Amino acid sequence: MKTLRNLLPLALFVILVGFLWTGLARDPHEVPSPLVNQPAPAFTLARLDDPAQKLGPADMKGQVWLLNVWASWCVSCRVEHPLLVALARSNVVPVIGLNYKDTNELGRAWLADNGDPYQMSVVDADGRVGIDWGVYGVPETFVIDKNGVIRFKQIGPITPESLQQKILPLVRELQKS
Amino acid sequence: MSLRRIAILVPALLFATISLTAHADAAFEMRLKNLEEELRCLVCQNQTLADSTAPLAQDLRREVRELAVSGKSDAEIKQYLVARYGDFVLYKPPVKPTTWLLWFGPFAFLLGGAVIWFVVLRRRGRRSGNDDDDTPSSGGHDGNQSERARKLLDESPDH
Fold this sequence. Notes:
The complex is a heterodimer.
Chain A: H1 2-25, E1 45-46, E2 54-55, E3 65-70, H2 75-90, E4 95-100, H3 104-114, E5 120-124, H4 128-132, E6 140-144, E7 150-155, H5 160-176
Parallel strand pairs in A: 3-4, 4-5
Antiparallel strand pairs in A: 1-2, 3-6, 6-7
Chain B: H1 3-37, H2 55-69, H3 74-85, H4 100-132, H5 143-155
């Protein structure tokens, strides 16, 4: 009984360290999205390459796809871009770009300079669709399943690890179902 | 109605409407300001939507304003943002099972401390109660020991 009581402060300390330790490993800028496992918010937006044509999530029903939010002014988009270009070459999964709060001229020029990994990009000039999708830090990438449900959200640039360990395994699993 | 009367009445009515709408506008702006102060900017996370100059905060302020103009209540506007960004946009987290520890934890700790304090005090009170009567008890400072101490002091040579 006595030793138990003497050990109590140590036990409390260990629990506190446990909490602080997991707190340290977390990124406070990654706010978990309430939209994961919810139907993808609908939109109909003009295409960047041809504004006369429209596209929305409804057109992608029946296939697994990625929505990548990007902008020409976005610095970290440049970091993940080579990964997206490589992904597009592998033809594993279609990627739709959401050109967020950008101008068409700058957006097109950026794709011409850096390569265009997108099946197509759509234009969200005033950021309203971004708000519907809970976008708060470009780049962001969503994985959407065949039924149009968001299954995963990557906040910030895609890394080789997140692509190999999370996004691609999830895409393969969703494509099987 | 004479021309002169109309000349007075029209500007007076005009002025009244302007000041009335101005008053309503001020109240509306006040409501928006209060609402924006309860919402968090997601980019600069320790700033409210009202304080932040981040582009996203500007967009969200625009969205909040449009929703308010369209007649949505404060609760509906908050719900709109929570559905997109999660509870994190609220500066005051809602009370629900996952936040019970956050809301009631401090009170639980306070209660626990009070219980420990009470138990310790009672135990101490019981122990000092034993000291007062002169019956010998196992160990501790009791009557017999004080007696011996007094004797020893009396026997000391410099006395």
